[in-house]
Each structure stands twice: as structure tokens, then as C-alpha cells.
Amino acid sequence: MKRICLLFITSLTLYSMTQAQPITPPKAAVKPKDLITNGHKRTDNYYYLNERENPVVIKYLNDENAYLDKVLAPVKDLQTKLFEEMKGRIKQQDESVPYKEGAYYYYTRFITGGEYPIYCRKKGSLEGTEEIMFDGNAMAKGHNYYQIGGFEVSDNDELAIFGEDTVSRRLYTLRVKNLKTGKLYPEAIPNTEAGSFAWATDNKTLFYIKKDPQTLLGYQVYRHVLGSDPKADVLVYEEKDNQFYMGLGRSKSKKYITIGSDHNGVATEYRLLEASKPLGEFVTFLPRQKGHEYDIVHYKDKFYIRTNWKAENFRLMEVPDNYSSSSPKTKGGEAMTDRNAWKEVIAHRPDVYLENMDVFANHLVLGERQAGLTKIRVIKQQRSGDPAKADEYLNFGEPAYVAGIGYNPDFNTNVLRYSYSSLTTPSSTFDYNMDTKEKTLKKQQEVLGGFDKNNYVSERFYATARDGVKVPVSLVYRKGTKLDGSAPLLQYSYGSYGYSTDPGFSSTRLSLLDRGFIFAIAHIRGGQEMGRHWYEDGKMLKKKNTFNDFVDVSDYLIKHKYTSTDKLFAMGGSAGGLLMGAVINQAPQLYRGVVAAVPFVDVVTTMLDESIPLTTGEFEEWGNPKNKEYYDYMLSYSPYDNVEKKAYPNMLVTTGLHDSQVQYWEPAKWVAKLRTLKTDNNQLLLHTNMEAGHGGASGRFQALKEIALEYAFMLNLVGERQ
Fold first, then answer.
1. Does the record carry Disulfide bond as a key word (predicted)?
2. What domains appear along the chain, each with residue ranges and CATH number?
3. Model pTM?
4. What is the per-residue pLDDT across 135-151, written as a single tens digit (0 to 9) for each?
5. pLDDT: is 324 or 198 the higher one?
6. Is residue 289 pLDDT above 80, yes or no?
7. Between β-strands 650-656 and 684-689, what pairing exists: parallel, antiparallel or unpaired?
8. Do 134 and 162 contact (CB within 8 A), yes or no?
9. Which of 92, 200, 377, 630 would be 623's cystine partner, CB 3.0–4.6 Å?
10. In degrees rounded to 5, what are phi and psi of residue 457?
11. Active-site positions?
């Protein structure tokens, strides 16, 4: 591969190809604001950047965008090439594998040039006549951003609830469409939760979650009768504790409408209402209790319960269904609240994390995680003798992969739909006959442009952290890449909320691999790859383990000649952006460049402001800084608060003006402060998408432009412009 050697060009002395004037970075005005908490004073010089409607703030963000364009002008053509290259790998006219629900087969498809999915269905068989439910391309016309937030079809298959977001604040407007006539009902209910709605069996009553437009927390469940004025909707439940997130749906058995309340890995509570009795009252399955998390799945005359009661990695239990309206146990659900009456089905295992479950008429399917890898376990519902003999684990045969239970709405089937991919295997959809044990590949992501999985190599190994803990690392590179320290390497992690970063396939990543990059995922603490303890050891007052693990993996990769300090790049987004900020404060010398996407970097100030979306629900993740112990600990690692006069790596920071998860001003303030204090001449770039939020652009191709920007930034730094 041809490489072009470039003189190191700094952001402060950079000259464009066509003009002799140096490119000067924008400078945000300094407006000190004192913040006092627990008797301690901090001074924030850029607090005012949170004024979203302030023309001065908007100008600053636009100036930063213009500066980025000038600095990266030498690789503008490369950025365009990368975009076209990544777009060229995507099969533009494509469709998903249909799934059967009720009398219909449902699927989505894309057309050539289309940015948005078209949601379709066919009645009776796949040879039936196609019905278009939602044409995303047509619905998105006139909007800079557009997102359909899920849909739910009524029991008679004639009506569909769906949500629309045209701003990217995750505040969806609920609509109802008549699928027979194609007409929309006049109701347009704003500020609702995406995908959290349910039909009653009467095909006219529906339930939905209302969100607080300021905090963006779903906190109220309403009942609506189709055709009535939404102002007359009945409030059926209100969550009083703003540390809980809510979800709403219908059980797979279709018997119950469920309200789930979750306190971010600390407590869970479910409420049930028979879908055939929409005017009834929701009844609590088991009241919330700090430290107890559980999930429930209804199966015939009982419930399966995934619970961490006396089981850190969760176990599976069951209890008879005593919620029928004819049951004397209806009021209070006494039989359910007595956990001593629960029967154990699968015991707790210290080395296996029970992640999720699905039920079928004749089978129970479990999603498990062991040694950092996902597993799918199939169990016969009716079994005799040793239960283990009726169990089967699906075999996947690769060292690093991700497999998961798919969407299986059909209860009366012996076929399990599951997904599979690896760092070298494109996303695949399988059907597995749970009786005959036959696997059928229904679809594998088609990667255009001559992709051959045999051209790539994946590895999995463990790096030892400073406290002796073994951290899994998944890695992929193109065959022929030298492992002598000369290759550039991109190290990625997330490491928060118990979210596991699995080694899945990415067609966009090929643009880096084919240019000599190695890609590595560090499965650091704060995720849940190695079980529940992996998460517990990377949150609250143990959060620094997350950052230490990442740095120690970087040291390992350098020591073992996968890369070197002048070729090592780091990337993380959202809470992974916090990781990036903490890492460059701790060990900036290790990295040539860092990409921090929508980074959560002003930890203390954000967690003190309960009006900001998601703050209160995350006290159990980071701690409540009103408590001095947590304040001091958070302050010791908060990236924004710990910027100091020293050299930092080259950095690309991205955000969205309408971000609902991490407010745009966090990365904007961070960049402004870094510009003032950093002692190096490395690039520091801020890109704000002025029309999007946390997830970036909404179209499937428009989003590639943001990835192309990130890749061009890194490739430029290693002298690659091809």
C-alpha cells in the first residue's frame, strides 16, 4: 500500500494549500461563573455555552465547524472517497428477513438512493400482496431529521400506533394509522416515549408513556380511546421517583399489558393489566426493593422470572399466574410477592451471567454470557430426568463473536430466530429448528465491493490490568498487516451502564483495515462482558477501574508490538467519551489521536443539575455529587474539571446541537478549555451537527459522512490520503 510521508503540521501553524495566512482556531469568550457545592468552589469559564438560543453560542459552534473544515481541507477528497467507499459496500436495494406475527409477515426494505426504511407486510404467506405500512422516505420529506420510533399493530391487524421524531430530542409524537385505508387518525400526541405503547384487545384502547419535555424522562402512563380528544386521556400510572426509567408493552402471550420501572441496575418493578380489561387497574407483580432486579415472561399458567435475588449473576425462577381477574389473589398479588413461593428453574452460576430469555410453546431459550462471550441455550419445556440432558448450547465456532436471541413474536413455533456476527463475519440471521436442531441461514449482510472474510484475521486475548485483573481484548486486522509495532491501531471501548461491547462486524470499518489499521475492542470493567461483578467493579466509587483498564490495554498493545505510541488511536462515544476524556488526562502520551463522540465530560456539573435529561436516573451509575464522598470522587476524574497545562493528543470531538443524552455544551466547553490550557500544537477539532442529536444524522447514508470525517482525521495523522 502506497504511503505518503508528511511533515507534521500543527493546528496552530497550519497553512492551507491556497493561502499564506495561518489558520487560527476560534476562541470562546471567558465568562467566569463560580459553582459552590459541599463548601467547595469551582470556577467555570464557559458555563454560558449552555445557552442554546444565544446567537453568540451558535456563532462559536459554527466557527468551530468552519475551523475544522479548514484544518482538514488537505483530506477533503479522502473524506469524500471514504464516504463513497462505505456507501458502495451497502446493498442499496435490500430487505430484512420477514418475521411472522399474527396473520402477517413483517419486514423492512430499502430502495436505491433511499435514506429511510420502508415498513411492509404480507398476509398469509411471503407470496402474498405487499402492503406498505410506512414509507420512511416519503414521511421524511421536508425534515432535516426524521425517525420512526417503532410501531405496534392492533390485534385485528388493522391499526398501527407509531411515533415520529423530527428534531432528534427523542420526544416522539404518537400517531395512529388505519392500515386498511392508509389514513391517519387526527390524534397527534406529543412528547411520548418511542416504542412504549400497547393495544388492548378491543382494538380501540391504547396505552402510552408521556415524557417530561425538560428532563426527557417518561413518567406518566395514559389510556387513550381511539377517536377521542387526547386531552381527555386517563392517567393510569405516574412514576413519582425520577430515578426510575419506564417502559410499556404487551406480553408475548398477549394476555397482559405491562409497565416496567427500572432504577438503572438497582431496582425493578412491573405492573400488569389484562389486555382484555383495559378499564381495570394495573397490579404490581412484585414491589420494588433496592438491590433487587427482575424480568418476567408470561408462559401459559405461570411466569418465568429472571432475578438477582440471592444470585449476583441472576437465576431463573417460576411462579403460578395468580393475576387472573377471577383469582382471589388479584388484589395485591400476594402469591407473587412471596418470593419464598418461587420455584427455582436454573440455579445461580458464579461464572455464567443470565442475560435474557424468550419463551415458546414447547421451548425455553436463554441468552447467557460466559468468559465474555454470548451463548444461546435451548431447553425443552416438557422434560424428564436430568434437565441438563434436555439442554443444548448452539455452537458458533469462532474465537470472538456476538450472538443473540432475535425477535420471535410467534409463540406456537419450534423455530428460533437468532442473530450472529463476528469481527470477520457480516451480520447474519439464522432460523434454528429446536426439535431437529437444523440451522438455516436466512440472510447474511451482503457486503459489496469484493469483500472476502478470508482476507481478515481476528484474535482474542487477555491483557493484565494494574490490579491483576485480566481484561479481554478482541482484535481484527487484514492479513498481511505487520505486527511489529508499525501498524496504526484504533482502540475502542464504552465501559458503562453494564453495556457489553461485543465483537460484531462493521462494513465501514473495512476502510480502516484495508489501509493497514488494526481495530481492537477493550472489554473493560463497567460493561458486563464477564458477568455482573464486571459492571459493579466499574461504577460509582470504582469508576476509575474503567479508565485504568483502557490505559493498561493500550500499554499491552504497545508492549506486544501491535502498534506504537505514534500510531495508537482511541475512540469512544457518550459515556465512552467520558472514558476518552479521563484517559487523555491520565496518559496522554500513549495516543497519537483521540476521537471523542458526543462525550459526557462535565460529570460533576451535569450530575448536579436535575433539570438536565437523565441526571436523576443515573445517580446509581456515577453517584450523587450532593453527597461529598461522591462529589470528591467524581471531581477527581471528571475530564472537564481535570484539564490542565500539559500536552494532549490530536483530538476530534463531535456533538449534536439537539443531543438529548449528552448536551452539546459539554464537549463545547471541554474544547474551549483545552484550547486555553493545552501546551502542545496538536490538532483540536470540534464538529457540531447543527441538525441532529445523540445518534447523529438520521439517514442511513448521511450517517456515513460522520464516520468518514472520523476516519479522515485519523488517516491524515498517519500520512494516509488515499
1. no
2. 58-87+450-602+639-718 (3.40.50.1820)
3. 0.87
4. 999 999 999 888 998 99
5. 198
6. yes
7. parallel
8. yes
9. 630
10. -125, 135
11. 574, 659, 694
